[in-house]
Amino acid sequence: YRMTDAEVRFYLHGMTNTAPLPSVLRRYGYMLDDQCPLCKRGGCSLLHVLSYCPKALKDGRLKWRHNEVLYVLYFHVEEKVRHMTVDTVRRPSKKQRTMVFVKEGAKKKPKKPARDPPVLEQACDWNVTVDLDLPGQQYAFPFSITVTQKRPDLVLWSESRRMLLLIELTVPAERNVVSANEKKTARYEGLTSAARQAGWQVELWPVEVGALGFVADSMRRTCNKLGVSSQKLFQELSSVALRCSYALFVQYKSESWKDWRMS
To answer: What is the tens place of the pLDDT at every residue in 83-102?
Structure first.
């Protein structure tokens, strides 16, 4: 996907905090107040429109952007899982201590530790559920592991490996990436603890894609651990997040809102 000129301008405005919104227009004398047309609160900046407007949150506008980004992530992860077969499974290396003899006066050559294969390549019986309204699919956390009211965005589990993967996505303002990661980690501590007590190996990976398309390091680390090809995925995640934010910006005065498929 190639960005339009309007989207490029929006991105540059976002990076320099100069988007033509009430807070900026009032600063330069073009408006008398900086009230948000939707929630009627003051301080209508780009940060407010893209992340904090309570009316946008109530309308589902921010959730729409989140779900569009989540769909891209789910598509790539599910594709990786779908292509796993018995023949492509790679077992983790068994770390064993071996005695190495070195000649007198010689130095032992450092040996690189064997790396375990990516998590998704360690089994071919992965189950996947995602918190999206997809035709023919219903979100269902595996009750055989533990009963919970929490709804992690993307859940994968393998009975053969007794492994549970929880991926929780946030699409925050770029300045809030670190705090968003910390909040999601704390939010699911109880769930991860209960699953471990049930005898499952659990990995919780909060991941972030900024509202202006910045792909956080948490997403890069998670994709590496999963074994999901990252270059194309990151381009799509970045593009969809930015385009959705641009749509929110364009519609910030409109009282009506209806979700649509961006990706």
So the answer is: 999 988 988 766 555 556 66
